[in-house]
Design goal:
- By secondary structure, the protein is α+β, with helices and mostly antiparallel strands.
- The chain is flat and about 105 Å long.
- Helix 7 packs antiparallel against helix 8 (240-263).
- The strands form ten sheets. Strands 1, 24, 27, 28, 29 and 30 form a six-stranded mixed sheet that branches.
- It has 27 helices and 35 strands.
Length: 935
């Protein structure tokens, strides 16, 4: 650090000076410039340490986490893929910038060795600029996907575009990579020209300023005046360096125009996406003319005739801008539909392919019938699985009756199916998790509680979809903590939930403190973690690293961590999967599965998406702000709720994007055949993909180009009323158990109805199959346009117009309560639909909806009853004749019945009317009592 002369001087005085004054003497003996270097060097070293220490700590923690999930090899590949392209780009940029700087110095008539200090710092500065430029301009995912696609083997019948005959893989991987390389070279050339100019002109001005300063001080009172023209660099355009830059820019411009030819396939028009007639027949040839003109201008650029270059390129470019508009207005517009027909057909075909509407998909006619009853034997599976509970109302209810403590929460409710007593049963399942933010103020302020004690949720709540208690609450098959199982077919051997949807990071397990398990009366039960989740953090070094990475010194100083302690991070299922594979789009709603051996496992769907499918329309996709024009449900993942073990299974091996990722990360993915059978039974069609496909199908079911052009038959997703607002909203995709028309076996399905644009009658519906080998199949049912079938909003209108229902709704929306209307479920029957809507009452002060009434509608019948059993009994009986418009209680005598067969129906009808009158009187009495109590 010191010069050798100062070092020898310090050593020579070492024996004669007291030890306490030696350092002071050495510092005093240093020159001011040496002291400045020492201070600057020390500051730089401190800054380096401030960056390096937390970065290293995070790297060590990351390594241990990837080791926990047994994917260190995948992590190392990700690091290499992230570092390699940027490093290569930095080297290329540094060399180019260094050459530009050196040429600029020589143009100014200088050499670097004339300025030693400047020569030391310039390489560092250029390297930093090169690194920042490479970091900003290079997307390493684009680079690694391109190289991963080199070994991609495409089937012989793979899709190719009709203009250039390029396969889809070229647009997914090749075109983005070539465009990125071109952008890198093009911008780097401009940056090199700027460095050349800044270096040359900067040193010229510096030398001129020094000359003028010396002249002012020595000879005359002149001064140096800075003017805008001082920035000009005379003679630079004739240098070989700038001529080379001009040639590179022209070559890059030609390549840019060439790659822009492929971009024509993504043009957006009023009636389609992709290259239309003008794009293919006029714009494309003119673009080739522009490319030829750009290449022809290169000799002029080398000779320094830049005006000729600009004139030639601008003329060709102007021609390419003007002529297509003239052809479109004069020739295409008057005959648009006949001219554009083949291009519209390409658009329909590509969008249908990109959203998998033609793969494992069939269209079937659905013929409505006039039936107004249901045969219980024929529709047994459907009627046994009618979902009476809306998911939002159910979630609010169990949060009140099963939370057990204020800090327990049920983030979501999932719909699934299980075999119970040999029959397929649809159930609702919710995980009981801990929300540490809901702990008492004293407990939440403690650093220990959320990290060592309240570490996990406990158990789940499971209920049948079609059963309610007399109080209007769900009938639970699994409840309480410890779990009470009230149905065969279930067991919970590991009810602890360390990984879920509502968790905090980090937590420490297997420590000196026992963890809270579940409440038991006035006492709490505690346990110690026995699994393999998390990674060891018992050594002093790992504790120190964790403390630095988390910014929490208590981790280092606490006495609760033992040699066997483990640290758990990335415990939220969605975050955990994103950390493993952030190149996939992960579903926002993982769902809970109870395995045959009693474990809790989360399942989630992963999607590959793109905006690079030619001719395909860009449509909204949940989780993507910009949408997508290509999507596949390529992966299904599982996360063990106790150990955190992650497994990714490929369910669509034909998807080219997932094939590339399999090439890049061979140890990350498993084939679908390796998924355990008890988990495979619970794989289902995801709602996010289903919604995207429904959005596509409502327009692209029109296959005729003229019908599509005129948008004659656009559909809309059916709407219904929900909640208190009474505002229509689209029906959500619904999981049901039913037997499809023409099939014999009940199955787990996802369905959604459609209505014509601007109307509310049913026009079609789609179903996705979820069971066994049929997982992923789509069926589109199309109704006849000549026969009317009620849609959900028309049923909603009939509900609002019914006197008895509207009277109840008005009454219940008063006096401290309000009505919640559940989502209407459309259940397909053979030739018709059964509509089901649940009506709940909820107190204003407490969010615990109670199922009060049930509405069933089929054909022209509207059934309004207290329980499903009553509604079911009426549903399966022949429809009664219309009631005469007379008073509810007749004062005239009825003719004597002629027999027992006539007495029973009349007596049943009279009892039913009397019961309705009694209920109405009871309600009115309640209102009067409440009003009297207020007075």
């Amino acid at each position: 650090m010191y010069y050798s002369r100062n070092a020898r001087r310090c050593r020579s005085k070492e024996q004669r000076l007291p030890s306490g004054t030696q350092l002071r003497y050495c510092l005093t003996a240093m020159q001011p410039s040496q002291l400045r270097k020492l201070v600057v060097g020390g500051g730089l070293l401190a800054l380096l340490l401030l960056w390096a220490i937390p970065t290293t700590a995070n790297l060590i923690i990351d390594y241990n986490w990837w080791k926990e999930v047994a994917q260190v090899d995948t992590w190392m590949k990700m690091l290499w893929y992230a570092i390699g392209p940027v490093a290569a780009g930095t080297v290329v940029a540094f060399i180019a910038l260094w050459l530009a700087h050196d040429c600029g110095l020589r143009f100014a008539g200088l050499r670097q060795h004339d300025f030693p200090m400047y020569a030391r710092f310039v390489p560092v500065g250029l390297a930093l600029v090169g690194f920042l430029f490479a970091q900003i301009s290079i997307d390493y995912w684009t680079v690694m996907r391109f190289f991963g696609s080199r070994r991609l083997v495409l089937p012989g019948d793979a899709w190719k575009d009709q203009v250039f005959s390029r396969p889809l893989s070229f647009y997914l991987f090749g075109l983005p990579f070539y465009s990125q390389v071109l952008g890198f070279v093009f911008v780097l050339a401009i940056l090199c020209a700027l460095v050349f100019w800044a270096t040359a002109r900067g040193w010229q001005l510096a030398e001129r300023f020094r000359f003028e300063r010396d002249r002012v001080l020595v000879r005359s009172p002149g001064s140096f005046d800075f003017e805008p023209r001082s920035l000009m660099l005379p003679g630079a355009s004739r240098t070989g360096f700038l001529r080379t830059i001009a040639v590179i820019l022209l070559l890059g411009l030609a390549v840019w125009f060439f790659l822009g030819n492929y971009e024509l396939l993504f043009n957006s028009h009023a009636f389609m996406t992709g290259a239309d007639f003008v794009d293919e027949k006029v714009t494309l040839p003119l673009r080739w003319l522009l490319i030829v003109a750009t290449l022809a201008a290169i000799p002029w650029a080398w000779m320094g005739k830049y005006k000729n270059v600009i004139f030639l390129v601008v003329s060709a470019f102007a021609l390419q801008l003007i002529v297509p508009g003239i052809v479109r207005a004069v020739y295409v517009r008057p005959n648009e539909i006949s001219i554009e027909r083949p291009y519209i057909e390409r658009h329909i075909e590509a969008t249908t392919l990109a959203f998998s509407l033609n793969r494992n998909a069939t269209e079937r006619p659905f013929t409505p019938s006039a039936r107004e009853t249901v045969d219980p034997a024929e529709e047994n599976a459907l009627l046994d699985n009618v979902r009476l509970w809306d998911l939002r109302a159910y979630n609010a209810t169990i949060a009140q009756i099963q939370a057990l403590r204020p800090y327990y929460t049920f983030p979501h409710t999932d719909v699934d199916r299980y075999l119970i007593n040999g029959r397929i049963k649809q159930v609702l399942a919710s995980a009981r998790e801990i929300d540490v933010s809901q702990l008492s103020a004293e407990a939440s302020q403690s650093w220990i509680n959320p990290r060592f004690i309240y570490t996990h949720g406990f158990g789940a709540v499971v209920s049948e979809v079609n059963r309610i208690t007399p109080d209007g609450l769900p009938v639970l098959l699994i409840e309480n903590a410890p779990p009470e199982i009230k149905s065969p077919g279930f067991q919970l051997t590991r009810p602890e939930i360390y990984y879920g949807e509502k968790t905090q990071d980090p937590v420490f397990v297997h420590t000196a403190r026992e963890e809270f398990d579940y409440p038991s009366g006035d006492q709490n039960r505690y346990s110690t973690y026995q699994g393999t989740g998390g990674f060891p953090v018992g050594s002093f070094m790992l504790k120190a690293v964790a403390a630095i990475a988390e910014g929490e010194p208590n981790i280092l100083f606490t006495g609760y961590l033992t040699a066997q302690s483990r640290m758990m991070i990335h415990r939220r299922v969605h975050d955990r999967l994103e950390h493993v594979a952030d190149f996939l789009l992960w579903d926002q709603d993982p769902y809970l599965v109870i395995t045959d051996d009693g474990k809790l496992v989360w399942m989630a769907d992963g999607y590959t998406t793109s905006l690079s499918h030619p001719y395909s329309a860009t449509l909204p996709v949940p989780g993507l702000e910009e949408g997508a024009n290509y999507i596949r449900n390529a992966v299904k993942a599982t996360v063990d709720a106790y150990t955190g073990k992650v497994a990714l299974y490929v369910f669509d091996p034909s998807d080219p994007i997932i094939q590339v990722y399999e090439q890049l990360f061979p140890k990350l993915f498993l084939p679908a055949s390796e998924m355990p059978a008890d988990l495979r039974r619970h794989a289902r069609y995801p709602t996010a993909l289903f919604r995207a496909q429904a959005e596509a199908y409502r327009t692209f079911h029109m296959r005729d180009a003229q019908v599509f052009y005129n948008k004659e038959d656009i559909w809309e997703i059916a709407r219904n009323l929900f909640g208190q607002s009474g505002q229509p909203e689209p029906v959500q995709p619904t999981y049901i158990v039913a037997t499809l028309p023409g099939e014999k076996t009940p199955e787990f399905l996802l369905i959604l109805p459609f209505t014509p644009r601007g109307k509310d009658n049913l026009i079609g519906w789609m179903a996705a199959r979820c069971d066994g080998d049929r997982l992923g199949e789509l069926i589109f049912y199309q109704l006849s346009k000549q026969q009317l079938m009620y849609g959900p909003m028309q049923i909603e209108s009939r509900i609002d117009q019914d006197q008895n229902i509207s009277k109840d709704l008005t009454l219940w929306n008063q006096q401290g309560s309000h009505v919640l209307r559940g989502s209407m479920i459309a259940l397909p029957l053979r030739g018709g639909f059964l509509y089901v809507e649940s009506i709940y009452i909820q107190a204003t002060e407490a969010r615990m909806p109670q199922l009060k009434k049930l509405v069933l509608a089929i054909g022209d019948r509207l059934i309004y009853r207290d329980t499903f059993e009553e509604a079911f009994a009426e549903l399966t009986s022949p429809s009664a004749p219309a009631k005469p418009a007379v008073a509810a209680v007749s004062t005239t005598s009825s003719p004597a019945p002629t027999g027992a067969a006539q007495e029973l129906p009349a007596l049943a009808g009279q009892i039913h009317r009397l019961r309705e009158q009694a209920e109405e009187l009871a309600r009115e009495l309640q209102v009067l009592e409440k009003q009297a109590a207020k007075k």
